[in-house]
Amino acid sequence: MSSISDNLTPLECTQQALKWIEKKTLTQDEMIDLNNQVMNNFKEYVNPGFLEYRKSVTVGGDYGAVEWRASGLNTLVDTQGREYIDCLGGFGIFNVGHRNPKVLSAVEHQLAKQPLHSQELLDPLRALLAKTLAAVTPGKLKYTFFSNSGTESVEAALKLAKAYQAPRGKFRFVATSGAFHGKTLGALSATAKAAFRQPFMPMLPGFDHVPFGDIDALRVHLRAYSDVAAVILEPIQGEGGVIIPPAGYLTAVRALCDETGALLILDEVQTGMGRTGKMFACEHEGVQPDILCLAKALGGGVMPIGATVATEEIFSVLFDNPFLHTTTFGGNPLACAAALATFNVLLSEDLPAQAAQKGHVLLAGLSRLAADYPEFLVEARGRGLMQALEFRRNDIGYAFSQGMFRHQVLVAGTLNNAKTIRIEPPLTITLEYCHQVLGAAERVLAAMRINAPGAHVFMKPTAIAVTTPIKTAAPVGVAVMASASLR
Ligand SMILES: *Cc1c(COP(=O)(O)O)cnc(C)c1O
After folding, report:
1. Within 13 Å and on the Cβ side, how many CA atoms surround 86?
2. Ligand 1 atom nearest to 182, measured from its CA
3. Ligand 1 centroid to 91 CA: how many Å?
4. Residues with C-beta less than 6 Å from any ligand 1 atom
5. Which among 23, 35, 393, 450 has most CB atoms closer than 10 A?
6. DSSP letter assigned to residue 317
7. Number of domains the chain contains
């Protein structure tokens, strides 16, 4: 490993890091040095697990794939100069693209003026963003609590529901199987995935899970328990694998909540901000939640920010003492500037409608591939630009995502959960890119068919380890993926 990174004093660590930050481009030697340091520091100081997880997918072999910069709205570049079409979108962060100029400009102006608030005077951007949220969100949603992440937006929603419902003797929560709401203890109690929960048992008391999309199960549950404070749902499950409930489900859930006095919390951390073809996914069914959770793309891919929007009736539990639930950085000026610019871009360019349109084209293409390669694929599904390819097995999906990476298309592929590959590009993705992605997917699947007819002879994912040295790792992208055509 790099000798430079060894035995540095803390001051030298920072000096070196500042040098990297200031650099716009890298020579070959600098690239190797930086990549070595990054690999080493991940192994020694971040978490060696990440290295194993990502290294095996990437082309850079022992040098891994270390990202360097965003290039266009829809592409990013690694330290070796390879440009990737981003079909992952940071799992729903980059709805307005990477470094959207309007978002950057707002943040840069605010940065020059006042990055963080005094915590004592009234900060103007919080007020302007809260008003914007009241106007853009459905129905009677009005007051907003700001935080820094999706998990925190869910925590605030749970606490709001508890404070509102406690005097009514309601304390329980109902979530759904396959749900993802974040990983702090409160949010994790609503999250369903056993692997994330198991080491931290017991969870908070009073959390139950019913099958997602099954209105009968929810009805039985809500009628059996009269003390349910709230039902918490994603309109479309994201982490769960882009699971779309039956038509009419959300409407029926809303009616059941009204009937039984449970609040409806919609977690639109991933489905919100235009992702599914409407500004918020609940608009597909005209459903209004009592509490709405937002984050991810709310910060325009530039700043982290979470928001919990509630009706006045519910939010008023915080009126007497606004310090009941607070966070130092939540709703800071930089984050609010980013979110205000993000809404401006989404609305003025009607990106939700664009997501619907382009999502149609992409999904039609992916569905065609699913039909053409039934030995690998179960189906393609999605709404707007929240899509997924479901493969027959983990190792097949893993081989696909690895292939796409080599064709310079970034899709998520994890060793343990590659059966469903999510495709969530920026809503700014062009039709041309959509066709390039489909072309790459076709080539990858065709190559897989030649290499593994009938999909019988894939290596176990754990056995796949690319150790190609950096010198021979010339771009292997097909011609349409050459970086010149990506600008
Ligand atoms: C990502 C996600 C979260 C958690 O958000 P973080 O910003 O990672 O804390 C919560 N809910 C849903 C639906 C998500 O997709």
Report:
1. 27
2. 4
3. 9
4. 149-151, 154, 180-182, 234, 238-239, 267, 269-270, 295-296
5. 35
6. G
7. 2
- CATH code, domain carrying 423: 3.90.1150.10
Domain carrying residue 199: 101-348
pTM of the model: 0.91
Residue 356 lies in a domain: yes
Nearest atom within ligand 1 for CA of residue 151? 9
Same domain, 207 and 299: yes
Look at residue 5 and tell me if it is in a domain.
no
The CATH number of the domain holding residue 287 is 3.40.640.10
User: Is there a binding annotation on residue 150?
Assistant: yes
Q: How far apart (Å, rounded) are the C-alpha atoms in residues 293 and 144?
A: 10
In the three-class reduction of DSSP (H, G, I as helix; E, B as strand; rest coil), residue 145 is classed as: strand
Question: Do residues 227 and 262 share a domain?
Answer: yes
Q: Is 151 annotated as a binding residue?
A: yes
Atom of ligand 1 nearest to the CA of 184: 9
245 contact partners, CB below 8 Å, separation of at least 6: 212, 213, 235, 236
On whether both 326 and 362 belong to a single domain, the answer is no
Task: Tell me: pLDDT of 340 over 90.
Answer: yes
Is 19 inside a domain boundary? no
**pLDDT per residue over 387-433, tens digit each?**
999 999 999 998 999 899 999 999 976 656 789 999 999 999 999 99
CA of 305 to the centre of ligand 1 (A): 11
The number of angstroms, rounded, from the C-alpha of 416 to the middle of its chain's C-alpha atoms is: 18
The SS3 call for residue 182 is coil
Q: CA-to-CA distance for 430 and 440, rounded, in angstroms?
A: 15
Q: Which two tokens stand for residue 238?
A: 């994201």
Pocket test for ligand 1, best of 181, 191, 234 (most atoms within 8 A of CB): 181
User: How far apart (Å, rounded) are the C-alpha atoms in residues 415 and 419?
Assistant: 9
